[in-house]
Amino acid sequence: MTTNRLHANDVELGYHGSAPVVRDLSIEVRDGRITTIIGPNGCGKSTLLRALGRLLKPSRGAVVLDGQLIHELPTKEVARRLGLLHQQALAPEGITVEDLVRRGRYPHQGLLQPPAKRDLEAVERALKQAGMTELRYRAVDTLSGGQRQRAWIAMVLAQETDLLLLDEPTTYLDIAHQVEVMDLVKRLNAEGRTIVMVLHDINEAARVSDHLVAMRDGRVVREGSPAEVIEPELLRELYGVEWDVIRHPRQPFPFAFPRGEALPVRRAGSANGAGIEVRNLATGYAKKLRVSEDVSIEIPAGTITSIVGPNACGKSTLLRTGARLLKPFGGSFRIAGEEAHGLSRRKLARRLGMVMQGPKPPPGFLVEDVVAAGRLSHQGFLRQWTRHDSEMIASALERCGLADLRYRELDTLSGGQRQRAWIAMALAQDTPFLFLDEPTTFLDMGYQVEVLDLVLRLNREEGRTVVMVLHDLNFAARYSDTIIAMKAGRVVASGPPEAVITRDMVRDVFGIESEVVTDFRTGRPLVLPVATSSGDGTGQASVSSLAGGISPERMAVSNSR
Predict the structure, then answer these.
(1) Which domain holds residue 116?
(2) Tens of pLDDT along 261-298?
(3) How many structural domains does the chain have?
(4) Which of 66, 69, 78, 165 is the S-S candidate for 84 at Cβ 3.0 to 4.6 Å?
(5) Quick check: helix, strand or coil at residue 122?
(6) Quick check: 213 and 38 in contact, CB under 8 A?
(7) How far apart, in whole angstroms, are the C-alpha atoms of residue 365 and residue 370?
(8) Beta strands per DSSP E along 33-152
């Protein structure tokens, strides 16, 4: 019989004297289980995890660890009992991966005590478990987003606690590394560790968890097994969008996929005007850190293109080079017929808006300040702030659901709310070209759909050319005219989603097995996390017969309407 390892009793949690984020909430973390908390942005998931990790003291109620009030325990003692992975953790500038991971051993060392043999062995194990051994001497701030995330995971593993709290551990990770990290979580659990996670990925939560806790508006609305919680009506209540839930006969967990707007799909190449032309491009960060070689692609104007591929394959580097944030080693990157690196920064900023991965604003910046920065390229010595600028800011805030938060400091917001602020800044910039580097990072599934629906409207109704880096292959397939797949700095496939998103591509590019079916609502590919060892070997299955709710051949689908 499982016992309580960690629990919160009737806690109320908030920040800086503002209204409580979590109210009258009680939760039990059973020993030996994987418990995952799901719910929309701002519902209190990360706030609750911070309280469970002793980073936030309840204004009412109590958090109890191993029968003791956690806030009465010394910080070092808590760090010996539980490890906490923060959301959007920041490393000191220039610190190497190995030095960061060694910090996980600090709770086990005395003041000025050098690392013991046990500490060094723990660091080695953590680096290996997180797949970071070969990058141990690299500076953390030179890594891709996914590599940085794995470095932080390694630091938490080095603590060697038997209780782990993980806030969005798969953030920035490609599909292969998401699977690897979640499989690692399962192995750690099988070895006896109790794990509590916050996840936006409903399907990974269903795949690995023993117990799900669904939150909304600071309260638990349901908890139970994945089969009990992953239901269309509950998901619609949580996220405000319609859902399909697919139940595959070879898997014990359900697969959920949100539905977006039914807007017409335009094929790539149907728009007139000069788009983006990349020829023989070589990119990187230094002579010894070349990321890509000989990249050549064409993106027609007025289309949506998604770039997919594993972490560090060159996706973000390609966008950063086109935005003049990195200088190419060779080749050309032309936007609307002109070489990007030949344009002035102001002229380029009027043509191209970009949402970068992991931006860091100055301390104390308000949401409105961040969004207003998008209008700076339209200012000049004689042209100052106008009514049109204010209208563009108000429109961007409204489109991204931030009107009520415009006067909040950015660092008081959830990760998803901050991400929407950066997207609003790019919208306020009002450019014909948009580069979006992981625009759905930190967003709950409802907001992911809303943001991508907004991108689709900007493209279809306003003719904006959009290039996105996405890790979610299903969203890439649904919202894109063209998919570009990259691996090891090179383009390995390019074309319409149904031609690129195949089981062979997923295996060759990401190194994992999958099953690809046809989404009966859109006709686009849908990648399911289904083992293929007992399959028929085809790798393709149509679910067009599921419109009535049941497929007698393969799967059942339930939906929220």
Answers:
(1) 4-238
(2) 665 555 444 455 789 999 999 998 876 678 888 999 99
(3) 1
(4) 165
(5) helix
(6) yes
(7) 7
(8) 34-38, 60-65, 68-69, 83-85
pLDDT in tens, 98-142: 999 999 999 998 877 888 999 999 999 999 988 899 999 999 988
Instruction: Please give the single-letter amino acid code of residue 30.
Output: R
Q: Please, what sign has the CA dihedral across residues 155, 157, 162, 165?
A: positive
Strands (E), 344-489: 352-355, 433-437, 465-469, 482-487
135 found inside a domain: yes
Q: Does residue 447 contact residue 414 with C-beta atoms inside 8 Å?
A: no
Question: SS3 string of 344-367?
Answer: CHHHHHHHEEEECCCCCCCCCCEH
State the average pLDDT over residues 15-36: 90
Two structure tokens written together for 163: 């209780």
Inside any domain, residue 444: no
User: Is 27 part of a structural domain of the chain?
Assistant: yes
Token pair belonging to 226:
């994945």
Backbone angles phi and psi of 504, in degrees to 5:
-65, -40
Element (H, E) at 332: strand 330-335
Per-residue confidence at 530, pLDDT binned at 50, 70, 90? Answer: low
DSSP H helices, 54-110, are 75-81, 97-102
**Which pLDDT belongs to residue 539?**
34
Would you say the pTM of this structure is higher than 0.85? no
Cα 243 from Cα 559, distance rounded (Å):
6
User: Which tokens hold the place of 488?
Assistant: 């090891």
- How many Å separate Cα 438 from the centre of its chain? 7
Residue at 474 is within a domain: no
Average pLDDT over residues 430-459: 89
Q: Which two tokens stand for residue 446?
A: 């409802």
Residue 270 pLDDT: 46
CATH number at residue 130: 3.40.50.300
Residue 172 zone, left/alpha/beta (φ > 0; ψ -120 to 50; rest): left
